Amino acid sequence: MEPRRITAISQIRGLPTRMSDQFSSAPKIHCHDATSDAFALEFGKFLDHTNRVGKSDHLFCLLSTFALNFNCPWLAYGRLTPDKRAMKPVRGDAEVMLKYPDKWQERYFEMSYETVDPIIRTSQTRASAFRWSEVYDDASTTDGERRFFDEAATFGMKSGVSVPLHDPDGSLAIMNFAQAGEGEFGKRTVTYLQLAALHFHLRIAKSVNSSVGEKMPLLSPREKECILWTAKGKSSWEIGRILSISTNTVNFHIKNVIRKTETCSRTTAAIKVIGAGIITL
Predict the structure, then answer these.
(1) Strands 74-79 and 172-179: what pairing?
(2) Which stretches are transmembrane (predicted)?
């Protein structure tokens, strides 16, 4: 039986879940029977809509909806840290954006899987998009990396495509597209996902440059404590035990941070707060 194949982006969690209403009724394109005209039409719609928006979370929603045409409900985007070991937000950089199963995100945090994620390693030496199956089958992939793939597949992501995004200054971002099925991605699908990822990356860079100087909200000391432990992968119950407060109080402070940062989840809020330098891990 063919082994399960999967990857994950590194130490990041949280996502903007809202999809654009303009794309909500878009027909799904199945890889095995898609025509060139259908691919071109959906890609044209994606370009048209992304060129009209500037906010990073809206851009991510549009990309997420476009990826659904290729049966890819799971996406992740982030930039490598300067040591190129993990995907973490860097002050002044675009925030990491992630749409992955919650349980897999928690597992990734808990096990520090960024240290064994072969997608990170592969992306550093590849200039074009690659299928995760290529990495799984590569002779340089270790048994430990394959076990990581197999475990991740149990969380619902069994195949996908990664797109390395190398910038002129030597920095690197990675975009992952994943699906629950084990079917292989066709060449045309890989090409369009790579083009969409590149366009998204360029639009994100423009969005970040235009938002430089944006003020971050003030957080109370307790809000900072709660969101810091959230960033470290702790649940509300665990944070309550650490800080000697109730779970309801923890949730109250975390909801305040989410509201103040105008984000959609506790982990997205944590990423934004870390990226702004308000807290450090």
Answers:
(1) antiparallel
(2) none
